[in-house]
Amino acid sequence: MLRTIVRILGFVLAGLLVTGTAAYLLGVRVVMDGGGTPHFARVESEAAHAERLQRHREAQRAAAAATPAQAVPAPVSQPPAGHAAAPEAAPSARQSLPAAPTARSAPAVPPSVAPYWTDFRGPLRDGAYTERPILTNWPSAGLKPLWKQPAGGGYASFVIANGRAFSIEQRGGDEVAVAYDVATGRELWTSAWKAAFHELMGGDGPRATPTWADGRVFVLGATGEFRCLEDATGTLVWRTNILADAGAANLQWGMAASPLIVDSTVVVLPGGANGHSIVAYDWRTGKVAWSALNDQQAYASPMLVTIAGVRQILVFAATRLMGVTPDRGQVLWEYPWKTQYDVNASQPLRIGDSRIFVSTGYGTGAAVIELTVADGRWSVREVWRNRRMKNQFTSSLLLDGFIYGLDESILACLDAATGELRWKGGRYGYGQVLLAGGHLIVLTEDGDLALVRASPDRHQELARFPVLSGKTWNHPAMADGRLLLRNLAEMAAFDLRVQTAGAR
Questions:
Q1: pLDDT at residue 99 above 70?
Q2: d(Cα 149, Cα 180) in Å, to the nearest integer?
């Protein structure tokens, strides 16, 4: 009897081994979703994806070379709000010699509009697109993309200026800053350096979305490499490593906070001790302008806001939300916020002149605080707090006094004044949400694109269709009515511009 049981177990184990080996050879792997739940999925090998990406770009360059070059007008140069242009500085010791960028081709023809989506999640970093009306009567079969093509790895989004979309990708052992023509998807230039971040649960590759300002792109890699590049060519202006400068260890899930332009500086969050938690570099030269505080940082990006009439930088660190002065990083006020694993990854949301909404996952929930200042002294009052909105690594949106966002993986709507849950519905996984034209554009964790009416009355999904394959945590970006999407392996663009009468 025992011998029979052993024999059966042997057959079962052998079958499992054969099945597992076959599945592995076919690319089936165990992957984690945003909630940490493992599941099986077919994953293209790194080598196969790199080869497919290289073949695509070579064909793209060959096609571009066969097309007659067009005259290129001068690009539109407009610093973002809060940026004060400084005179051109002389080269410093920190500045690197210009590197010869690769994958060169003619720059994109700039549009007639000024740069708009130049920061992570838009000009105010609040996920709201307000530049122009958009198409909201999507066909039931889904929208046809302007273009779709393979992309390198990582979780960064795009910033867009002068007809170019900028991102950062993992390609083999290199982190690669890259510029694309928004209209065609054609790769215009790349600038690469040796760096690779690997993490079993979250995944590999760079996380931080670049920032554009006045003809330059500021790119931060997952291991702290920080570069300033010319937007038209990718030529290196200066470089440093923010972790090395601050004497800081990397975070468990890598550097993820997007650089922030503040006046003549670019602010980053290395999280170093001894006054190096927040560091501002002169954006022209790369020299350190100031540094401050000792907080361990988290994964949210700094935001330049005005609260109670006072201009300041919002910083969501590992254990507190705070407002700091834009010239020295001095703390004006703080609100303790402790979460499991020190994962504060969502963006705070400003409500009116004096209130801020904050939310995180892992069972923590959300709160609204009210800030007042009298004789230079700040007071923080908690208006409400509950667990009805848990933004894990997505961020909420505000429209007409109501907050919309993903409560873990389900879309929800809260009353911003009271925290009352108005509705909850629709499973979108741990995706991302963008507000445009009175609607929520939802990019799901599985790569679907959905359109939901932004109304406090009920959840109303108007359209949903597949766009990208594989895990999709990257935030959508939009400028001049064109929606850009990407994930670990693919990227696509959709034209949502409303055609006016007589337009062709």
A1: no
A2: 11
How far is Cα 196 from Cα 198, in angstroms, rounded to an integer?
7
CA distance linking residue 280 with residue 251, whole number of Å:
19
Mean confidence (pLDDT) of the chain: 89
75-84, 268-277, 333-342, range with greatest mean pLDDT? 268-277
DSSP track, 447-504 = SEEEEEE--SS---EEEEEE---S---PPPEEETTEEEEE-SSEEEEEE-BPPPTT--
Q: Which residue has the tokens 């993820």?
A: 256
Across 18-22, 143-147, 386-390, least confident range = 18-22
**Pairing, β 432-436 against β 128-129:** parallel
* Residue 345 pLDDT greater than 90, yes or no: yes
Closest among 351, 355, 314 to 332, alpha carbons compared: 314
- Residue found by looking up tokens 């931060």 in the block: 220
**Which of 160, 197, 155, 159 is closest to 175 using CA atoms?**
197
Please compute the mean of the pLDDT values over residues 270-277 and round it to a whole number. 98
Q: What is the 3-state secondary structure (H, E, C) of 311-364?
A: EEEEEECCCEEEEECCCCCCEEEEEECCCHHHCCCCCCEEECCCEEEEEECCCC
Is the dihedral angle over the CA atoms 161, 164, 165, 169 positive or is it negative?
Answer: negative
Contact status, residue 211 vs residue 120, Cβ threshold 8 Å: yes
Over the stretch 231-265, which tens digit does the pLDDT of each residue have?
A: 999 999 999 999 999 999 999 999 999 999 999 99
Residue 208 neighbours by CB under 8 Å, 6+ apart: 120, 156, 168, 220, 221, 222, 255, 256, 257, 258, 259, 301
Provide the pLDDT for residue 43.
Answer: 72
- In which region does residue 241 sit, left (phi positive, over 0), alpha (psi from -120 to 50) or beta (all else)? beta
**Within 13 Å, how many C-alpha atoms sit on residue 13's CB side?**
6
- Least confident interval from 4-18, 269-283, 342-356: 4-18
* Total Cβ atoms within 10 A of residue 498: 13
pLDDT on residue 31: 65
Give phi and psi for 453, each to the nearest 5: -70, 130
